[in-house]
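Final report, closing paragraph on structural work. Over the funding period we assembled a curated collection of sequence-structure pairs, and we close with a single example.
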Amino acid sequence: MVEQAAKPLARPVRVWVLDATPGKVRAGRDGEDHPAELISFLSTLPKEISSKQDVVSALIQQGFSSDVAQWVVTNLRPDSPLHSRSSSFSWVFDLKGIAEMYRSYEETNLWKIVEDVPRGVHINFLKAERS
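Its predicted structure, as stored:
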């Protein structure tokens, strides 16, 4: 935000960086789930899903952790009311939009702002367990 503002921002500016690195994004290491790989795999699944458990099984078979697989299916919603016999599910998010946002995140390196914080700007980081 600080780098992209078209005009000077009113000071002081407080920036919070939430669970993200300001530098180059590291790819997942052995045993870690990498968001780009997850997004890529999800894009191969049909738009309508017949079973949440099938998605969990497919993700685990593909090498994603059980925790991530369970979390992902919380983003599936029934296509019809609960009383209906149809039991298909659809994603509640725009996977193409998520892919574009994540690609932008990977390509953006703001380390220079951290090294030379503009006057009147305060940067705070919230670090997750494995960040």
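The CA atoms of residues 86 and 118 lie 56 Å apart. The mean pLDDT is 82. We thank the funder for supporting this effort.
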